[in-house]
User: Which sequence fits this backbone?
């Protein structure tokens, strides 16, 4: 092979499928997925701008109206948009936010700086999650265990009370505060110092301009209280009850719902189409629905993929398909039954 041909081969788009995934799907479907992975990357900076603009407009409305009830709604919505922004950091980690690897790194660092979290440790832990999904080294499995989402609960109400509500009252806000104000174990002191100094400078400038309270209320508070809760919900939807499965087709859950739930919890598609993301991590978020359509038509095992309709409750339009929370509770009970010795 000539040098020119070798370079051409190296530039060929790849969806990033692992060896087991390639064997599971076969060369024809892999080629279809590879063809999707280079599209839509020019819009990454615009996606960031849209999410920041949405948060800014929401804060401006809250400040202008000033009603306590609307303030609460605005704080919650900004926390949701912060989760959307963290999904774009996730795109940058997989070098698909833009077409340039260097630009992905720069934008990822800047976005993480605004969100008060370290970029490099997040990138490192996320790569471990992909490489060792379901193993003791997997950060996602560790979070499930530490927050009691790995073992069965009697019913959905108990799961919601103990795994979602109780963690939301203390553990998740504490985690949000420590992420913002603390130093990650594998974060350098220089990076942590830069992050703290930047936040101190922005807070100081906002105070001088008479908006210190607004900055705390409409950016820092959602970041500490709301965004970790929204992230926890979507993290549960991704793998809870499935993460121990050794079949790459059945380790991850996808879901759909009505437009409002899709907007609030499914920002930028990676959570809603999470199985496809894990199989083909280099496909950009805009192309995930198209990838799902191709696989639905051509992959013989598609019906085995855990797919839910509705997040909190079953949808009336699809009563035979469980919601995400219903499926988590059922899968945790099934997991327990499979690991119990025969009597």
Assistant:
């Amino acid at each position: 092979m000539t040098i020119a041909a070798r370079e051409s081969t190296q530039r060929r788009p790849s969806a990033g499928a692992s060896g087991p995934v390639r064997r599971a799907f076969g060369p024809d479907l892999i080629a279809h997925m590879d063809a999707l992975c280079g599209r839509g990357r020019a819009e990454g900076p615009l996606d960031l701008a849209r999410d920041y603009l949405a948060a800014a407009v929401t804060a401006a409305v809250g400040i202008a109206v000033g009603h306590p009830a609307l303030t609460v709604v605005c704080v919650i919505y900004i926390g949701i948009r912060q989760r959307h922004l963290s999904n774009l950091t996730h795109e940058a980690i997989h070098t698909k936010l833009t077409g340039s690897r260097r630009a992905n790194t720069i934008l990822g660092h800047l976005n993480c700086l605004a969100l008060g979290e370290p970029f490099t440790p997040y990138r490192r832990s996320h790569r471990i999650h992909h490489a060792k999904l379901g193993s003791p080294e997997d950060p996602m499995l560790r979070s499930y265990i530490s927050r009691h989402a790995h073992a069965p609960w009697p019913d959905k109400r108990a799961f919601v009370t103990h795994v979602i509500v109780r963690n939301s009252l203390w553990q998740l806000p504490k985690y949000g505060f420590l992420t913002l104000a603390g130093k990650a174990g594998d974060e350098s002191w220089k990076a942590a110092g830069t992050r703290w100094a930047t936040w101190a400078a922005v807070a100081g400038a906002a105070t001088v301009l008479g908006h210190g309270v607004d900055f705390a209320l409409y950016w820092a508070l959602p970041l500490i209280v709301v965004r970790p809760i929204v992230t926890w919900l979507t993290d549960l939807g991704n793998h809870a009850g499935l993460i121990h499965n050794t079949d790459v087709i059945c380790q991850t859950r996808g879901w759909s719902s009505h437009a409002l739930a899709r907007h609030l919890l499914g920002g930028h598609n990676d959570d809603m189409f999470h199985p496809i993301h894990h199989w083909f991590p280099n496909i950009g978020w805009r192309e995930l629905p198209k990838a799902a359509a191709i696989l639905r038509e051509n992959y013989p095992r598609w019906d085995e993929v855990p797919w839910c309709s509705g997040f909190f409750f079953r949808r009336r339009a699809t009563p035979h398909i469980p919601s995400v929370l219903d499926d988590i509770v059922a899968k945790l009970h099934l997991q327990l039954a499979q690991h119990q010795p025969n009597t």
About this structure: Residues 1-10 have pLDDT under 50 and may be disordered. Residues 270 and 285 are 6 Å apart (CA to CA).
